[in-house]
Amino acid sequence: MQKDTINANEVAMQIAKLLMQVRAVKLRPEKPFTWASGWKSPIYCDNRITLSYPQIRTFIRQEFVKTINDEIGDVDLIAGVATGGIGMGALVAQELGLPFAYVRSTQKEHGLSNQIEGVVESGQRVVVIEDLISTGGSSLKAVEALRSAGCDVKGLIAIFSYNFDVAIDAFKAAKCKMLTLSNYNALVEQALADEFILEKDLISLKKWRKDPANWGK
Asked: Which of 57, 92, 190, 193 keeps 20 to 30 A from 47, CA to CA?
């Protein structure tokens, strides 16, 4: 058990390092970003950038597959959350030799008005692939859409999570298993080790993590 914990921590740190190296994650405490929600944030994350780097996307894909095999078990379908989870989800499905579908945030307003794109059958055991979890709202919309289609959602796995309590509570309330390859704590620790940030930045980064909605006001 201890060995698995160490391995998981090492993976989280390694992925955090890779995300910063290719600037999929940017840390800028002194000049905050503004999220679509209006929150001020010292961090901006766009994990889709990893798809442009074959070695990195291969490593992440392999860790997704390992997590599915170790933590979930047998599944029938991989589903990506649009848009960030589509590319990596397709790669994971290919690796496992499984069908793939993806889920939009809402139904299309034209054509067949699909929210789920791809062949999905009632009773299928599904793992959902996501690039990033913040509050968990968009991820859980995808879970609900799949459940409404009759699927047995075994869990959702993301590349990275901010570890917000609101997301953890939301997944518990939805009775959906949430797993992530890396997380905010690992990112900050790795950023300090690699001198992406300085010791003086830690206070600000920890304050943001505790109360992101009011940070910077």
From this structure: 193
Cβ(25)–Cβ(198) below 8 Å: no
Q: Mean of the pLDDT values across residues 33-39?
A: 88
Q: What is the identity of the amino acid at 1?
A: M
Q: Compute the half-sphere exposure of residue 52: CA atoms within 13 Å on the CB side of its CA.
A: 9
CATH of 2-203, picked from 3.30.9.10, 3.40.50.2300, 3.40.50.2020, 3.90.25.10, is 3.40.50.2020
Q: Beta strands 77-81 and 100-103: pairing type? A: parallel
Distance CA 178, CA 43 (A): 22
Q: What is the mean pLDDT of residues 51-59?
A: 97
Closest CA to 128 of 114, 144, 113: 144
Angstrom distances, CA of residue 214 to CA of 120, 136, 137, 209, 211: 41, 19, 19, 10, 6
Residue 151 is given by DSSP the state -
φ, ψ of residue 44 in degrees (nearest 5): -130, 135
The secondary structure of residue 70, as a DSSP letter, is: I
In the 8-state DSSP scheme, what is residue 23? T
pTM for the model stands at 0.92
Return the domain boundaries, the chain: 2-203
Determine the Cα–Cα distance for residues 12 and 185; give it in Å rounded to an integer: 9
At 128, is the secondary structure helix, strand, or coil? strand
